[in-house]
Amino acid sequence: MSLALSQSNSLIAKPINWQIIARATGFTFFQAGLSTILTILLGLPAAFLFGRFNFPGKNYMRIASTLPFILPTVVVAAGFNALIGPTGWLNLFLMGVVNSTKPLINIQNTLAAILLAHVFYNTSIVIRIVGSSLAQLDRKLEDVAQTLGASPWKTFVKVTLPLILPSILSAVLLVFLFNFTSFGVILLMGGPGFTTLEVEIYIQTMQYLNLPLAGILSLIQLSFTMFATVLLLKTGDRGMGIPVMPRLKQEGLKIPAKNWEKTFTFTILLLLLVLLISPILSLVFRSFTVTAPASKSEAGERIIFTLNHFKELFINRQQSLFYVPPIKAVWNSLRFAGASAFVSLILGMMLAYGLRFAKRLSSFNLLMMLPLGTSAVTLGLSFFTAFAGIARSQIWAGLLIPLAHVLISLPFVLRVVQPALQSIPANLKFAAQSLGAKPFEVWRFVELPIIWRALMTAAVYAFTISLGEFGATSFLSRPDMPTMPIAIFRYLNLPGSSNYGQAMAMAVIILFVCMLSMAFLDRLQFNPNSGTS
Amino acid sequence: MKIKWFLTMVMVCGLVAACNPEPAALNVMVHDSFAISTDVVAEFESANNIKVNFILSGDAGSMLNKAVLTRNAPIADVLYGVDNTFLSRALSEDIFEAYDSAFLDQIPDQFELDPNHQALPVDYGDVCINYDKRFFAENGLSIPASLEDLTKSEYKELLVVENPATSSPGLAFLLATIAEYGPEGYQAYWQQLKDNGLVIVNDWNTAYYTNFSGSSGKGQQPMVVSYGTSPAAEVIFSDPRVEEAPTASLVGKNMCFRQIEFVGILKGSKNKPSAEKFVDFMLSKRFQEDIPLNMFVFPVNETAQLPIEFTEFIQIPDQPAVIPADQISTNREQWMEAWRALMLN
Predict the structure, then answer these.
(1) I need a labelling partner for A117 at 20 to 30 A (CA). Which of A8, A405, B93, B269 fits?
(2) Least Cα separation, residue A43 to chain B (angstroms)
């Protein structure tokens, strides 16, 4: 289909404001860099904890730390507000402690809010990717190093670190790109004082229909995505060729025993609890409560527990055509997420194999990263213009949303699966072949078990990306196929305590559904042979 | 076996998503805030043997952009939800067919901003400052009666507004100040607001639910730029139930900006007779009376009765701010940029 750009008034050239471009570009790099460093600082030790130690509640902790990933920013903002907003619980508590009437923590519209939200969102990427490669590592190598007299620190720097470097780089790249193209966090948590490329693209496209300027900004964004990807892939290549062997469940994991191990475990868990889990808990708490004036005569408020928000979700009070029954939204979200996780896994695996065999295809590797480093506005608008024609057909429209999700989660799958695949020692395959295994058998019984953990990590993310994705979906959304995030937005569009409560309740339902799905996928992850029976 | 079961389940999910056949229909592009009762639409569908498909297309601005970008092969027959701040863009991009609906007789002339009837008015609503009644009562503060009052020191740090570049009520409030102080004077006024501790956020959600003390977010500012109908919504959607609105609107001269929303038949529609029937229906009493409690705006049709909540809890401004649509279109970008340069640096 053709676009009407040539006739449109919107392409009359306006002078390009380079100052806007320079400022947005500068701040984008600054906040993305700083956010990534902070995320890695928390994520690496946490990954080490999950990859090396067993502690009570570990599985719950792993799942809980992944939950932020699926939450729409509006809901996260509400969670933070309930916790550290001017009348948030933490603030009220601190005000009580020091007897102050002014809130002690006030980070609304500050850089700190942006950084906090980015750490909240992305730490789990580091934990999952680096943690799973640490757990997969052949521990004999470290034992050998120590036997030869290397100190634990030297072993870590000279042996462990180089071995897990590809996965660290993958995690850094993904976290950086997420921060680089972050939109909702900048807009809602950072406030109007901060403008990134992404926010500027949104303003130029949606407000001014200044497509030339939006185009330049998108190009800057895209070229940097390519540059960062190439850089990290090149660096990663040098660390390749490390044997990763299939590991038994729980092998190499120990319970913290020494003093430093206990302190380490405690500190990291406490940090995760405060930074990642407490905003979610405050959200859950909020969905079960209402506030009411304490009494007619005195000021202040009391908090009442209620199930009303959840009950109201099931009632269509206004008889609205666009009312979203929660079950339907859950079902839509689940099937979109299931379909898109399945397709991205298959495609991602095929791509990873293709890239292993044909080095010349490496430009493909680059191409696949682009959707992740592209503005959601640009991506959504491209989806829209490209598919506007078939969006009218009911049959195809239902497939568009999962397809859009596949495009976004594919880079993720590729970044997780590829390092695992490249690390399989070639002699394993040859050994199997010389013992008479057919190519399919080699794949099924040798390679698949080795990359299984990575595959399931990728599945978790493909699934959760789809479950929480709002940007592209909103461009393609159809009133008869609402997903859970879209349902949340419909409630938050109107004033009223009941609407607010219902939005929180819907978010809690998303969290719950996501928790169950992840528990299921985690079980698969740690039972690599469950399919053989 | 678990894997096989899982994979089969996922594949079945994919297939179910693929098979949902439906007959051809009238496509109507609407913004995300559009809402209407199921039985009202069903009545139209059965009376005219037309299946109406609503295409949710983002906020009013994104929706219009989509319509402009796909004008050679329009994805819909009818577009509803262009407001007077975007009207001139829609008209100058020439995306609408003219249509003289018979129902225009029932609509006051003040709403008919397009004399050629390419865009027909459907509803209107005021963007006003809401205030937290309890805060004002407890602190013995008087209610600001004019935009000028907001610069007084007694209201220091008490007002939160939205960024006009990212929020439609934010833009409406900027336009209200331009109507009051003129294109030359509004910047000086905003400087005074800034000096008086004005809080700016990017979107209505944050302003209303995080910053405003009168909402369930219990924020710190007792005044917020919101909608004139928000107090009624606070009663209707209250939990626990309240009998009286906890908030009210400031309706002094030029303190509210009136947004009027329009519908039009998209050029290139292959379904013009059905499109005309639907536009007629949107302007008819049945549809118009269903608008208030679904979208929290007022119907333009004079014969439509208002629900009791709208007469009881809503303050109507006597003199809402007015700026001609063509002036808004010519200057919006310049006004917004000047505002951003002044307020965000």
Answers:
(1) A405
(2) 29
- Of A336, A335, A316, A337, the C-alpha closest to A326 is A316
Instruction: Check if the interface score ipTM surpasses 0.85.
Output: no
In B, minimum Cα distance to A384 occurs at B66
Partner residue opposite B239 with nearest CB, options A108, A308, A334: A308
- Closest-CA distance of chain B to residue A147, Å: 41
Mean of per-residue pLDDT scores for chain A: 80
Q: Given an 8 Å threshold on Cβ–Cβ distance, is A8 in contact with B32?
A: no
Closest by Cβ to A8, choosing from B4, B68, B294: B68
What is residue A529's predicted lDDT score, i.e. its pLDDT? 46
Burial class (CB in 10 A: 0-12, 13-18, 19+), A21: middle
Give the Cβ contact number of residue B113 at 10 Å: 18
Separation CA B199–CA B150 (nearest Å): 13
Residue of chain B whose Cα is closest to the Cα of A345: B7
Q: Are A449 and A503 in contact (CB under 8 A)?
A: no
Spatial CA neighbour of A406 closest among A327, A466, A480, A490? A466
Non-local (6+) Cβ contacts of A162 within 8 A are A239, A242
Instruction: Measure A337 CA to nearest chain B CA, in Å.
Output: 9
Cβ of A291 within 8 Å of Cβ of B216? The answer is yes
Q: How many residues does chain B have?
A: 345
The pLDDT of residue A11 is above 70: no
Largest CA distance in chain B: 74
Task: Give the pLDDT mean for A320-341.
Answer: 84
pLDDT, tens digit (0-9, with 9 covering 90-100), for A77-117: 888 888 888 778 888 888 888 887 777 888 888 999 999 99
